[in-house]
Amino acid sequence: MKKLKIADGIYMLTMNVEDVLFEGIWEIANGVTLNSYIVQGDKTAIIDGVIGWDGVPETLYKNLEEIGVDPKSIDYLIVNHMEPDHSGWISNFRKIKDDFTIICTDKAAKMVASFYGEDKIRVVKEGDTLDLGKGKILSFHPVPNVHWPDTMYTFEKDTKTLFSCDMFGAFGRMGDHCFDDELTPDEVEFFEIEGIRYYSNVMATFTPSVKKAIEKAKTLEVKTIAPGHGPVYRKNPGKIMDDYSRFAQYAEGAGKNEITILWGSMYGMTEKAVKYAESILKREGVKYNKLKMPLESESEMVATILRSAGIIVAAPTYEYKLFPPVATALNEVGRKKITGKAAFRFGSYGWSGGAEKELAEILERNKMNWDFIESVEFEGAPREEDLKRVEAGVLALIEKMKSKVVA
Ligand code: FEO
Q: Which residue CA neighbors atom 1 of ligand 1 most closely?
């Protein structure tokens, strides 16, 4: 766990967590940070905790003492969001101190009670404030459904620091550099990619609410954004707001100037056409990614689809339906409400077709509204004329995605 000073009376405690499935689902290849913040006036508040899963609260208490904060002196626990990666330490804290007040929204209060049995709670609404003394005044601003309904921002008015919890967060472990002005260009790129992974895995389903939360942040004259995961933005908080606006666009059909091939193949017939499509993409100088299902992790799959302006779905028919690992992947993308992508499908069939029908059902059921080039299906191995149709489809996709590219 690291301790950093953000401003006089405001500290950050951060720890890297690795080898966990985030939310019990997402395989986060590069880990994630959990950030907690302390605001000290005459009274002391802690905003979100930094243990959860199998964390050790004593580490938190020791680090608090090292920045001169006796854990027993904490008066307020600000629960911006009840998900246990931020709140999982509350029951343990109760064992060392009895007289603290939890501050959260009404929706968080119900969960704080049901998960931890807590009842000494002050429920706050938009614009409510808490004066800690010594000029430290916190205000509270609900941002529901980013990604849980209970979420709120806490804003420290003196330093104009926005404690945004999950909003403006990113996956990815942090090394020595925790502030935006310290990050090397490689680290900036790393956190952008990890931010996209985080957005796709955690936030994408709630893109309309995320957009509202971005607008709310813009009304607060923020100087520093201090999220619950990832770097703190003190030099240029507008950068992460712009990034999040772009990620929201990705979820609604835009993307980087790249194509992702989401593919699977039973006996290599569809794979022959995948290789041919790759040769076309190389010839045309188009950047592309390949996701072989079911080998790819769900986290990486959803993230890569989210950021791509064009998608090639390459999958055969299997038992009258779409090749199951690819169907499962597309269903997950649909559940994440990743809509409006430019796309093209091809695939082989043997004794029966049926993949197209299931693809249409997945798109319809999830209201994905993807803009597909006419599919190419071939019986058994692709022949010369089939490959020519694949080439035409790939070229049409390259053309179609141009209007969707956002840098
Ligand atoms: Fe970082 Fe939604 O918890």
A: 166
Cα-Cα-Cα-Cα dihedral sign, residues 145, 148, 150, 153: negative
83 C-alpha to ligand 1 centroid (Å): 5
Q: How far apart are CA 184 and CA 280, in angstroms?
A: 35
Measured from the Cα of 148, ligand 1's closest atom is 2
pTM, rounded to two decimals: 0.96
Per-residue pLDDT of 142-189, as tens digits, reads 999 999 999 999 999 999 999 999 999 999 999 999 999 999 999 999
85 lines ligand 1 (CB under 6 A): yes
The 10s digit of each residue's pLDDT in 281-339 is 999 999 999 999 999 999 999 999 999 999 999 999 999 999 999 999 999 999 999 99
CA distance 247 to 332: 18
Q: Which two structure tokens, joined as six digits, stand for 343? A: 């796309």
Q: Which homologous superfamily is 2-251 in?
A: Ribonuclease Z/Hydroxyacylglutathione hydrolase-like (3.60.15.10)
How many CB atoms neighbour CB 236 within 10 A? Answer: 12
Distance 169 CA to ligand 1 centre (A): 9
CATH 2.40.340.10 for domain 256-398: no
Give residue limits of the domains in the chain: 2-251, 256-398
- CA–centroid distance, 249 to ligand 1, in Å, is 22
CA of 357 relative to ligand 1 center, distance in Å: 37
